[in-house]
Amino acid sequence: MYSAIGLQSGIALLYLQLYRVTKNQSHLQRSLDYVKRILRNLNGRRVTFLCGDAGPLAVGAVVYHKLKNDSESKECVAKLLQLQRTVISMDSELPDELLYGRAGYLYALLYLNTEIGPDTVPQSVIKEVIDAIIESGKNFSKEERKTDRCPLLYQWHRKQYVGAAHGVAGIYYMLMQPIANVDHETLTELVKPSIDYVRHKKFRSGNYPSSLSNETDRLTFKEDKYLKDAIDCSDVIWQRGLLRKGYGICHGTAGNGYSFLSLYNLTQDKKYLYRACKFAEWCLEYGAHGCRIPDRPYSLFEGMAGAIHFLSDISVPETSQFPAFELRPQKKENKRGYPQREFAAGQCPASLASESSQLQLATRGEEITNLESSFIRGAFTRYTQQVGSQFM
């Protein structure tokens, strides 16, 4: 969501998130205000959730659905499905990655089936997009003569990126979503060995290269080695994840904090909740750490909106999700089979501090206590004052 339209899409998504957390109808209405403006200015040049028309259309469909306006919701879905022909064409120059490619369009389809209902987008449509992603990955792997080692390989701008935004991690992650219904054979024979190929590129520091061409240092499957790698990565983030690039979720501390929320939901280990809360504590001191000012200081991915999104998820960690990437679980059970723990609306997990001495959370004398009072009201009020006149 980096373009002018995308920036407003991110703000609409933030208000939708705040409605989910608080059930305050005014947030939903505010999201609708942004959606209406965005939908009047779609350009049709890009097809993904984050950087194209798919995002505004998907968010619009969800907002209208929650407002019981089924006709407008269905119209948004129909327009989104019209983009599919470009996505599945192997003759187009469309990449496969999340920001600008097929995986980003796939996310939009899965998002609708998660937020509205499993039959909102027909499974046949989803399968055609998945088949195009698989075919593209197999073809490029064959070109690179890596079929045996990495059967699904992708590039963006002639580089084989590793990360979620432009790289294979984001593509593999979308293919592994349960709601995508990718067949078991594809997962085990194509996706899994490709993930293992990337795993073996890990540096001794625990970090990973930005691309597979930089090799100077070297769950769906329910195997402990994948969880161990995730835990190792989280330890690196804990050590190095307070960034001078800012507070946002793309290049900043809030985005790194989401890794701890994901691990907490997977393991129920309160260490990761503690780490997420400490990163949230850092974000609460917005502007006090000498971070650089992002190009779009109020946007969802670069700016304050992303930090607020993360802080709102801290209040309800059991249902947290990295925006435009993670999908909400369909069952109240985590992937490891542990029972999920519920929090009352507005109750901050900092109340867990009484259960463990490791969870004593203080923010310069003020404990993170409540969504409405301590952590978001001031930040959100400041945000709406600054951004409202600019975009409304």
TrEMBL record:
<dbReference type="InterPro" id="IPR020464">
    <property type="entry name" value="LanC-like_prot_euk"/>
</dbReference>
<feature type="binding site">
    <location>
        <position position="250"/>
    </location>
    <ligand>
        <name>Zn(2+)</name>
    </ligand>
</feature>
<dbReference type="GO" id="GO:0005886">
    <property type="term" value="C:plasma membrane"/>
</dbReference>
<dbReference type="InterPro" id="IPR007822">
    <property type="entry name" value="LANC-like"/>
</dbReference>
<dbReference type="GO" id="GO:0046872">
    <property type="term" value="F:metal ion binding"/>
</dbReference>
<protein>
    <recommendedName>
        <fullName>LanC-like protein 2</fullName>
    </recommendedName>
</protein>
<keyword id="KW-0862">Zinc</keyword>
<dbReference type="InterPro" id="IPR012341">
    <property type="entry name" value="6hp_glycosidase-like_sf"/>
</dbReference>
<dbReference type="Pfam" id="PF05147">
    <property type="entry name" value="LANC_like"/>
</dbReference>
<comment type="similarity">
    <text>Belongs to the LanC-like protein family.</text>
</comment>
<keyword id="KW-0479">Metal-binding</keyword>
<feature type="binding site">
    <location>
        <position position="251"/>
    </location>
    <ligand>
        <name>Zn(2+)</name>
    </ligand>
</feature>
<dbReference type="GO" id="GO:0031179">
    <property type="term" value="P:peptide modification"/>
</dbReference>
<dbReference type="GO" id="GO:0005975">
    <property type="term" value="P:carbohydrate metabolic process"/>
</dbReference>
